[in-house]
Amino acid sequence: MNEKLKVLIVDDEPDARTTLSDILQLKGYDTFEAKDGAECMRIVNDEFFNIMLLDLNLPDMSGLAVLENVKSVNALVEIIVLSGLSTIENAIEATNKGAFSYIKKPYDADQLILQMTRAIEKQRTQERINKLTTAIEQSASEVVITDKNGCIEYVNPKFTELTGYTYDEAIGNNPNMLKSSKTPTNTHKELWSSIIAGRSWHGEFYNKKKDGSIFCEAALVSPVKNSENAITHFIKEANDITLKKESENELVRMKNHLESIFRSVKDAIITVDKDLTVIELNESAESLCGFTRKELIGQPFNKHVVGCHGQCYKTLQDAIDKDNPITLEHIACDGINHAERHIVNLNSVPLRDHNNVSYGAVIVIKDETRLSELERVLHERSKFHNIIGKNKKMQELYGLIEDLAEVHTTVLITGESGTGKELIADALHYQGDRRDKPIVKINCSALPDELLESELFGHIKGAFTGAINDRTGRFSKADGGTIFLDEIGDISNKMQLRLLRALQEKTFEKVGDSTPIKVDVRIIAATNQQLREKVKNGEFREDLFYRLKVVELNLPPLRERMDDVPLLTNHFIGVFNKTFKKNIKSLSDDAKKIFMDYSWPGNIRELQHTLEHAFVICRKPVIDVDVLPVDLKNINKNRDAYIEEKDNGDERGAILRALEKSGWNKTKAAKLLGVDRRTVYLKIKKYNISEDS
């Protein structure tokens, strides 16, 4: 089995439960146990099970009552009844209440495993049927199913919407009720000769609605065969293409006009209709994309043109959907003729007819590779979105963000507190193709389990005390966009399991509800903790860790990118000048030296708060040492004292005195000593220092 199937064993006899659990675990099942009906219901309310093995003789309630209650919570679970008191009446009643099968104790283990295998097959078949039924009911295409004689047995809602006939009017009728004389006779002959011969037919024909109006359809009609290869039904899937047919003549005229323009432009130009089918392209587009006009014209745009990772396709789609020009700059393009990646700018504009009605779009692709390389050589990026820094590690980080922006994989952002993990999450979201959708953020450490579960997944009215109304969770609010789970390392084991299920199955249920909700959400998580250590210590689930850590972005602490301190300082000076309505120019030389000597254990956040403190006090155009926080004022003195004591052979004493003076706060002790927090921890371990010492 690729993933363990979950089995709940409900029996009041401990030995029976243990024996059966051991057998099933050897077969690869994940087993859970309940001694009575009440415990069974508590477990079922918190966990999804594939199979339940249920003893009818329970101490607190009837096994049949438990069967009914479980089915009301999880209709998909398959229940196999095990009983030492087997009667025909009990078997019939259990089956009527939803049991898969009824086995008398003592049972044969192989027989039980066979029944469980069949139950799983039934469960998976039902899941597929449910998904297929839902897809057909919600399909934007018209779906009609007939028997082998052409008598209609099913139509979906789109059929009634399109034709005007109700479901009852269509059932038992013949598709000829829609037949229009505008469709050539040969078309119907070709259709029937193909499907009767067992082949699918795809084509266009005109049909007549209930009110007599004519519409055109593009349809796929296919035969359905049984296990003996005999045709039993026919299924038609069709889409209304009336507007498309009406616009074709206009598009032909426009094509001739565009060709003369294309030949005079060096940039790549491609035009598409509203369905994003390629209408025309020039020679520059052939060269850039690596395909000829013959290969692309009349084909779906995204069938061949994939070198921009879908950006060209999305730009065209947005221009059509929003009916406005769309521009994207510095997009990576990997056309098949490129030995190296090219950088292009994309401009897409809706195409309009003489009535100013949009009928498609044009995209202009300008190759900016040479210019982009020159810019990169001449000027390293000192700012990326709202992230400040030109350090080599930050440049590498910017490149990783660009690579990940269009990939919807889960990202784990790690780094010390105050390094700017939330800014990285913003950059990943707004750099990617989900930028027009929401990014929803939640601090997982700020809420207890019950509130966090409700915040993430929502709840229904009455789910718990105080739940006076239904509530939409953050996952639902982030549908189509991104959810940022900050401080993910602080969530409890229960929430880890709940979150893992949501990530794996891409569905969840509101608190107090069993209705699954499916969303399309990109997950970005962040932590300042060492999750590997927490996994090793059993404090964090290993499967959730690897599910979150598909790609890890590690932010360097400020002490490892000290060359960015002047850049960050100037940035915050500009911010606080606006906030405090001052005109402070810079730091004094002495203050600059302190800033560059200090290890910044609180990282960028500490730098920001230090400058904010200085702005409140400073009344001069230059920030000097006298307006800095006390810790920074004394940094040189503390460091000199520490170095002197260290040189005199009493480093342990210096560390111990700093810890005592700071109330054993390692961060404050590091500031007193003028070193980083990591150094303090290493020295404590080296000299075996404790509060008792």
How would you describe this protein?
The protein contains 29 helices and 28 strands. It has 693 residues and is α/β, with parallel strands linked by helices. A hairpin with a 5-residue loop joins strand 8 and strand 9 (214-225). Helix 26 (635-647) runs antiparallel to helix 27. The longest helix has 30 residues, at 109-138. It is flat, with a radius of gyration of 34 Å. The two termini are 56 Å apart.
Which key features would you list for this structure?
alpha/beta, 693 residues, 5-stranded parallel β-sheet
Sum this structure up briefly.
The protein is an alpha/beta fold and 693 residues long. Residues 374-380 have low confidence and may be disordered.
Structural class category: alpha/beta
- Please state roughly what percent of the residues sit in beta strands, choosing from under 5%, 5-15%, 15-25%, 25-35%, 35-45% or over 45%: 15-25%
Largest sheet: 5 strands, parallel
Helix content: 40-55%
- Enumerate the spans where pLDDT stays under 50 for 5 or more consecutive residues: 374-380
Number of helices: 29
Give the distance, in angstroms, between the N- and C-terminal Cα atoms.
Answer: 56 Å
How many strands?
28
Mean pLDDT: 84
Radius of gyration, Cα only, in angstroms? 34 Å
| Large-scale geometry | flat
Strand order, biggest sheet? 2-1-3-4-5
